[in-house]
Specification:
two-stranded parallel ribbon; two-stranded antiparallel sheet; single chain; mainly alpha; 107 residues
Length: 107
């Protein structure tokens, strides 16, 4: 896999977490030290260490629904008590239908 997919040139590049820039997370009580495990490797770190990147799905079947049930049964994971957002589900469904119509009508 191309290291450009999982590295950054430097940690001075703007990085966003939940729409908030890394340098602004302190306003929410989150320090740089707290975010260290979530920061991408720099290109220099990758070149010096030569890690291999593998997708978990290469080794095991990956199903979002199975992962949900596993998490519910084996951790303190709590789902949204209100369920899925109907508006979001409807928007996704409408987008899929538009895509299908657009790709099939241009033959």
């Amino acid at each position: 896999m191309d290291p450009a997919h999982y590295t950054c040139a430097s940690h001075s590049d703007p990085l966003y977490f939940g729409g908030v820039e890394l340098r602004d997370l302190h306003e929410f009580g989150i320090g740089l030290h707290d975010m260290q495990p979530y920061l991408p490797l720099t290109q220099d770190q990758v070149e010096n260490k030569g890690p291999e990147v593998h997708f978990m799905s290469f080794y095991t079947h990956w199903s979002p629904q199975q992962s949900y049930y596993y998490s519910k049964e084996n951790s303190a994971f709590e789902s949204n008590p209100d369920g899925r957002s109907r508006a979001r589900t409807a928007n996704i469904r409408a987008s899929m239908i538009r895509l299908m119509v657009n790709t099939t009508s241009h033959h």
